[in-house]
Amino acid sequence: MARPKEHKPETILLAALSVFHEEGVTVSTARIAKAAGVSNGSLFNYFPTKQALIDALYVSIKSEMAAAVGEPDHAKPIEHRVRQIWDRWFEWARDNREAHHVMNLLHQAGLASADAQAVGNQHFEGSVAVFDEALAAGVLVDLPIDYLGALVQQQIDQAVVSELDDHQAEVAFGVLWNGITRNSNPPSTKASQ
Amino acid sequence: MARPKEHKPETILLAALSVFHEEGVTVSTARIAKAAGVSNGSLFNYFPTKQALIDALYVSIKSEMAAAVGEPDHAKPIEHRVRQIWDRWFEWARDNREAHHVMNLLHQAGLASADAQAVGNQHFEGSVAVFDEALAAGVLVDLPIDYLGALVQQQIDQAVVSELDDHQAEVAFGVLWNGITRNSNPPSTKASQ
Amino acid sequence: MARPKEHKPETILLAALSVFHEEGVTVSTARIAKAAGVSNGSLFNYFPTKQALIDALYVSIKSEMAAAVGEPDHAKPIEHRVRQIWDRWFEWARDNREAHHVMNLLHQAGLASADAQAVGNQHFEGSVAVFDEALAAGVLVDLPIDYLGALVQQQIDQAVVSELDDHQAEVAFGVLWNGITRNSNPPSTKASQ
Amino acid sequence: MARPKEHKPETILLAALSVFHEEGVTVSTARIAKAAGVSNGSLFNYFPTKQALIDALYVSIKSEMAAAVGEPDHAKPIEHRVRQIWDRWFEWARDNREAHHVMNLLHQAGLASADAQAVGNQHFEGSVAVFDEALAAGVLVDLPIDYLGALVQQQIDQAVVSELDDHQAEVAFGVLWNGITRNSNPPSTKASQ
DNA sequence: GATGAATGAGCCTTCATTCAT
DNA sequence: AATGAATGAAGGCTCATTCAT
């Protein structure tokens, strides 16, 4: 029935991606199996539990995204490397809206297990290292690395969600870079409450 | 049996807040009822459906937060007003970590109904107006208002999640403000891919 | 709130009648109480259980109907007495469609307890006696008394349900009487199967 | 565990028939499942809702009965055809007391949906046509077709309930036929009230 | 490996009944 | 009496998981 040569686990993950995107966090395994064109039972030949399937989906999206972002080129200056991460990440997310959405959904709703999230993060060690280095070099403002990393991720996410065009994305990168680098004057005074 | 004078709906919402925080999106009404110290059936004397309970929880958190943020003082300059929003919001979120977490959880997991989200947003019209005005005044970079608003929210969220101290929060506000205001040069060149 | 002078049990029974008629066999005690304008709990001050309420309703309808039918006049000939039962019964049922419907509903759905049905039947002993006597006198065809009695009841029921007018009801009585009296030739032959 | 070769939906319907007969309109799906020797959840593999199960039960009984009654033979005279309907219907009902009882129960308690009742009635169009024709031919008294049809049904029902033997059933048919045909004198006078 | 019927724990919700006020 | 909140046992239904074929 389904296209014969496709590898089943991938087919199932793609189906899961689609139904999570369209139907939210409550989808059943039966629904996923049906969308994948396999029987209810078959799904469990590939993923022993629903949690395993969710984790595999999360990790597969995250590693696909990591592959798209690639490894930073250590020969290039910091700003260039940060910009490259931004560009490729943004491009990937814009071209893979469903995957991007579902990745965030699984993460934010707490459906992906801690283990899966850890594995997913490993794929981004290269990118994180760029920020570590920038921080050590004194290029960035003095804030925890996880905070800065989160800002990058959130701003890219939001740029995709807000469907920024290329020009706007350019401006948006400026917002990020001008924010996190040291060349700026601190804001004046704290507002009285 | 339960403490006699406590108002029940509030007690139930507090219990729901707690278990959503601790056990995630999958909590059952029975679990909430037990945490609230009422019987399974009693919960439905106050909230006709689980969805109604979730919506009430979402709206109650959001309006509590809105009350904490307050209305901006139109006599003050823009930056002051933005700073005030940031300060109060951050303070509230830091003091109400559970509520802050659950609010985001219900929103991001799609559990709060569209109606509830609309009601919740009404409470923030005053704050949104500040950004509208800043945008119109040419103070901010030229990006969609929803994008800018989301940045504020996400950076505050992250500041709370990352448990920034007061000094770091000060720096973090600088990151936001230096990013979204116009006084900065755009970053030089787009990275080659 | 409710009209002050009405006797509560009757008010409740009338409300029950109405909601059973309009909403079928599944009505809740809460629904009945609301329709009666009393609180949920008050209902149980008058009827210790839902079953008791149903039984009281059944018996009250049945005895009201019996009162309408009255006692047969032993001075009159059999046919007259049967006709009188038919007339009064039909008239009552036509004027009390809801009660008639609910009485049958409680009976046929098995909601009225056996005891209640026995009590209800006691009110019709006078009428049954007419048929006993007719049977003994050889006026009627030789069939069990319960069978003949049931025919009378069912034909009246159906006459009401079919909304026969006076003339049709006259004809309908003829159908009954010509059927159950002996003056007619038996039908010719049994159909071969 | 359960007997392996039995067809499940039929097994479940038979179990439902039995428990509706024995326990009345309030039986739970769990009770039916247990009687059928399947798990609670299994029942819903065959009938998506309790209503669907009830409707299927109603229609299956009604069509089985219709099959037993068969199509009238248009070559035979009216009386013969009516008699044939009576005979076969009576025989089926006597041999299928439970089914007969439950069919009436579902109908009278309003448990079978309007759709199911419509479908059930389609199976009896042939029989109804016989009465239509008899009415048109002037054989029957001038009463609405639904009234006459109801009489037939009710008298057969009652004959079964009263457990008439063959001879009594013969007499009972006479009651029906002599009642509904024109050859009889109308009863004399209306009783004074 | 593939299937899909079977399972039964668990879910949300209803409701007759109780009881403190 | 009258109230209506509180109860908790069911009820209908879902679904992740198993397993015989």
Automatic annotation (TrEMBL), chains A, B, C, D:
Residue ranges of every copy of the HTH tetR-type domain listed in the record: 6-65
Keyword terms: DNA-binding
Transit peptide listed as a keyword: no
DNA-binding region per UniProt: 28-47
Cited Gene3D superfamilies: Tetracycline Repressor, domain 2
Pfam families cross-referenced by the UniProt entry: TetR_N
Listed InterPro entries: DNA-bd_HTH_TetR-type_CS (IPR023772), Homeodomain-like_sf (IPR009057), HTH-type_TetR-like_transc_reg (IPR050109), HTH_TetR (IPR001647)
Protein name: TetR/AcrR family transcriptional regulator
